[in-house]
Amino acid sequence: MFISLSSFTVANDMGEEVKTAFINRPHLVDEAPGFVRMEVFTAQENPNEFWLMSYWEDEASFNVWYESHKYHDSHNGIPKGVKLVPKSVWVKYFNRVSV
């Protein structure tokens, strides 16, 4: 299993709008070959800090999705006016070792 973990922090107190956008997301990724699931979290000490974990059967499936037009389309639901804390965006990739 391949896991993509990404994080970002909303700078202008629009965390609730971003949370609502994730809840109401169009689920475009759900039909992508190799996609397993996605989980979205906010940090307890900072509700403007978001963590996304997407689970994939393999890295190749993730890469196909990441380079697709549907990946870019999935970001159309980002609320207008959202600004991110500079340098708060990062992505890290993992391979599952054990359950």
UniProtKB/TrEMBL annotation:
Domain ABM as annotated: residue spans: 2-91
Pfam families: ABM (PF03992)
Entry keyword set: Monooxygenase, Oxidoreductase
Keyword flag Oxidoreductase: yes
GO molecular function term, any single one: monooxygenase activity
UniProt-recorded name of the protein: Antibiotic biosynthesis monooxygenase
